[in-house]
Fold this protein.
Amino acid sequence: MAHRTRLVWDDGFTAYNFGPSHPMAPVRLDLTTRLARSLGVLDKVEVVCPGVASDELLSSVHDPGYVAAVRAASADPAAAEPRRGLGTEDDPAFLGMHEASARIVQGTVDLCDAVWRGEIDHGVNYCGGMHHAMATHAAGFCIYNDAAVGIQHLLDSGAERVAYVDIDVHHGDGVERIFWNDPRVLTVSVHESGRALFPGTGYPGDIGGPDARGSAANVALPPGTGDSEWLRAIESVVPHLVEAFDPDVLVTQHGCDTHSQDPLAHLTVSVDAQRRAHECLHRLAHDVADGRWVALGGGGYELVDVVPRSWTHLAAIAAHAPVPAETEVPQDWRDHVLEISGREGPATMGDLRPEDLPIWVRSWGMGHNPDRPVDAAILATRQAVFPLHGLDPWFD
C-alpha cells in the first residue's frame, strides 16, 4: 500500500550552514534523520528529495530584489547586503546559500501541493519552518520563508482558508506579517513573550490588518513556563480558533526551542510535552481539515538531546506510528553521537519518568486564575481574538 505520509530529506539539506560557531548547526538535521531511520520511522513514510525553488515561486511572497540579493550573496558572500539582513551575525552569507534555502522552500511547497491534490494526507519537512524571513529581508537564521511560500501556493491552487499554527519559542513574525491583511490565512503563534525574547513582537493585541481582523492570534508566555502551563496555553487557544476558522489545510511549525535545555530561550518544556503538542496538532488536522496537514521544523538549538527526539516524534506521529516516550534510544545512534560529539546521547525518547506521565493539563473549562501569569496571557489572547470568531473568551 502506498504511503500516505511524505517526508522531505536528503543529505544535501545540511548545506544550509551558517558556519561552525552558529547555533543553527546542520548536524541537528542529520541526527534527526539518523534517529528516525534507526527507530524504523522512515520505513513508514515516503522520503522525497525536492529540487530548488524557482525565482518565480520565491517571488510569490518575497520581493524580487531580495531574491536577487540572496543570489548575489550566495555567489560571493562579500557582496552580502546587511540592509537585507544578509551578512549579519544572525544570517551570515555563505556560498550556495540561495540554493540551500530555495531547496527548503521547494520541499515545503511540494508537500503542500501533494496534500492539496490528495496524493498524501500528511507531509513533514523538519528542515523547514523558516518563519522569521520577511518579504524583503532575512531575519533570525531564516533566508526564505518556506512556510509562507507554501501557504501562498495553497491559496493560488484553490484553497479558500489555510490555518498556520506556530509553537516555536519565538514568535512566528514573518508568516504573520506576510499574511497580516489576508483574511484567508489564520496565523496562531504560542511563544515566549517578546519582552524577553527575539523578535520582540507577537502580543495579544496583534490581531491582523484592517481587512483581516482576528486573522492573527498571539499567546505571549512568560519566561519559565513549563509543561502543564505551555500545553494549557496551546489547548486553550489553538483548537478553538482553528475549528472556528474551518481551514482547508493545516500548516504547523514545530520549533523545539521551547525545551528547558535550549540555550537561546527561557521556557522549561520537556520532549514529552512537545510530543503531546505534536499529537494535538495532528489530531486537529483530522478534526478540521480532513487530515490535510503539513508539519514543519523550525528552531531548536540543543542539538543532541532535544531536536532529534522531538522531530523524530513528529515524523512518527505523522506516519500514524507514534513512538512511546519510554522507548530506548537505539544504541547505534548513541554510539554515533558519542563518536562525533564526545558526549552521551539520551537513553530514552522522553525526559520524564513513567510515573510522571501523562502530563496533567488543567483545561480552561475548569476555570482560570487571572493572577497566574500564564492564565493572564491566555485570557488576554482569548479576549482579543475569540469574539471575532464568535467564541466566548471566558468559557469553552
